Structures are given as C-alpha cells and as structure tokens.
Amino acid sequence: MQIITSKTLPSAPELLEILKQEFSSHYSYKLFGLGKKSIIVGKSAFVGAQISIKENEITIQATPPTVIGGMLASLSSTELGVFLIPLFFGKGMLLTSQRNEIEKEIGLFLKNRYN
C-alpha cells in the first residue's frame, strides 16, 4: 500500500514513537534497514508490516517481522507448505488475512493523520 501525503512526514524514529502512542502495546516496533529508514511493526512472529518513508510517500507492506516467520512464509508459498503449515499451525491460511488487516489498519491511521 502506498500513501502519498500532503503534509511533511516525520523521520522514521519519530514515526515509530507516534505509532507506539497510537497502538500502545498491541504491536512490537523496531527500526530496520540502512539508515534506519524503515519500521517493522509486529503483531506476532508471523504477522507484521514494514513501513518505509521516502519524502512525501509512505509504503506499507505486509511482511513477517521475524526471520523464522519469514522462512515459514516462504515455505507456505510452496506446494508442500500449503499442506504442512495448516497442520502445524491451526490458523493456517488465516495469516494472509491478518497480514492484510494490519497493513490496512496502519495505512488508514497514517492516511488520516498525514493527509
């Protein structure tokens, strides 16, 4: 999800603090990437989003916030994973809808705040 804003965006560390205040303890937060220009927001080990800031544009992409979550997400995209993931994790395919939900929730907040 891309959001083009009309207002000046804060830096990634400032935005991280704003998100912490808005969503409190519902999520975990950490700065990520070269120059710390991205924020990883995690709801669980498998559900999260990456927020990247560039000038007046915010990009939100659903992604697992942990390395293990990323490996399991990659596995679930294979044919074998389609059968194994639901067996080991009762929620199975609900992870995709949860990832979309966190992306929309954060995107709606940022869009309302900076447009």
Topology diagram in text:
Blueprint: E1 2-4, H1 12-23, E2 28-32, E3 38-42, E4 48-54, E5 57-62, H2 67-76, H3 79-88, H4 94-114
Antiparallel strand pairs: 1-5, 2-3, 3-4, 4-5
Helix pairs in contact: 2-3
Structure, described:
This protein has helices at residues 12-23, 67-76, 79-88, 94-114, and strands at 2-4, 28-32, 38-42, 48-54, 57-62. Helix content is 46%, strand content 23%. It is elongated, with a radius of gyration of 15 Å. The two termini are 15 Å apart. By secondary structure, the chain is an alpha+beta fold.
Q: Structural class from helices and strands? A: alpha+beta
Uncertain stretches of 5 or more adjacent residues: none
Number of helices: 4
Q: Span from first to last CA? A: 15 Å
Largest sheet: 5 strands, antiparallel
The succession of helices and strands, N to C, reads EHEEEEHHH
What is the strand arrangement across the widest sheet? Answer: 1-5-4-3-2
Number of strands: 5
Q: Please state the overall shape, judged from the principal axes of the Cα atoms.
A: elongated
Portion of residues in beta strands equals 15-25%
Radius of gyration: 15 Å
Mean pLDDT: 80
Helix content: 40-55%
